[in-house]
Amino acid sequence: MEPKQEDLPASDIIPLALPKGTEKLCELCQKRAYLQCARCRVTFYCDKEHQQSDWKGIHERICQLLIPIRSTSLFSMQRAGRIENLLKTKELIEICRLVAESKLSEGKYQEAVPAAQACLRCSGDVYGPNTVQLVPAYLLLADANMGMGNLALVVELLSQAEWAVLKSPECGHAVHHRLHRSMGCLHTATENFNTALFHFANDVYFASEEYGMESTVTCGGYFLMADVFAKQGKQSVVHSLYKEVAETWHTHLGKLLGEHIQNLQKNPSMLEPAFDKGQQVEVDKMLRTILEFEQDDSRKEPAQIALVAHALAMLSFLGGDSSKTLGFGRTALQASQLIPNHDLTEPIRALLQLVSTDPQLTSGEGEEPHHLPTN
């Protein structure tokens, strides 16, 4: 159970206990601190509200990990101690990055800020200021603030990230792709659509160089481009881009489903989820957007609706949600049956049959079919 604000472990800072000339700063805002975490005693806050935000965002996960890193001892000043703390700080960076990414995927932008800030601070401790290794943390913090509408701060953070990349000609494709994606999202938010499309095109290029043209990472750039074209009223372009995204995800989810079925037959007790919660929320939102677009499109292509609905059914099945699997599966089946001998009809039927036999799924009557195409 999540602790209430008044239950958080905190204690007042005793100024006389601090070394002369030192002042503790708040973990979130860097203003003068008056409280400290009573569990680790190495993290400080200006008030209870900031402690609550940090606790919920990241500190609960890393509280005890901070103690050896931030504490001064004879061992920590020796070479072996410095090396050990460096490795622990790198581990901390990875934890904070994963937490921030998960919260961003779930749309919990405010909660993502403390994790992104901690990632940035630890990255600076390890790699130094204005280095290219700080770029992922800058982008996490920018994406969180973009979600909250703090665009002025987003501009500042992306400028810092862009400067670090420009200073590092050896910077890899993955960093370039992520920077261009964030820049594209910023220009989309400010309705500078041509510049947004320029950045998303670069995003797709660098992602394809790093992960391949058929990657789900690469197709994320196509989805964001489609959003810009939709705002410009270019529906035919949107349809083409959505088709590319849907086919990529349908193929990927089909492979994951095949692996799931094999593992289920071998050792059902050792099954691990194909997605974490944040990833599933993000993919679900993307595919739902495409399905709604296809169902509202005047052309109403049954084959495309069947493909997207089938992808959503597979995603729901892999996430353990039988109700959504049945709902999307029935939508997919009815759309596929509008086309004689459609190649998805049998796989869809097999998935619907699998829902009732997979012990990992809860029983349920399922959802009503979603809005269906008509002749």
Protein architecture, described:
66% of the residues lie in helices and 2% in strands. The protein has 375 residues and is mostly helical. It has a three-stranded antiparallel β-sheet with strand order 1-2-3. A hairpin with a 6-residue loop joins β2 (35-37) and β3 (44-45). The longest helix has 32 residues, at 235-266. It is globular and about 75 Å long. Mean pLDDT is 88; it is low at 362-369.
Topology:
Elements: E1 10-12, E2 35-37, E3 44-45, H1 48-62, H2 66-70, H3 74-77, H4 79-105, H5 109-127, H6 135-147, H7 151-166, H8 173-189, H9 193-211, H10 216-231, H11 235-266, H12 277-296, H13 302-318, H14 322-336, H15 345-355
Antiparallel strand pairs: 1-2, 2-3
Quick take:
It is built from 15 helices and three strands.
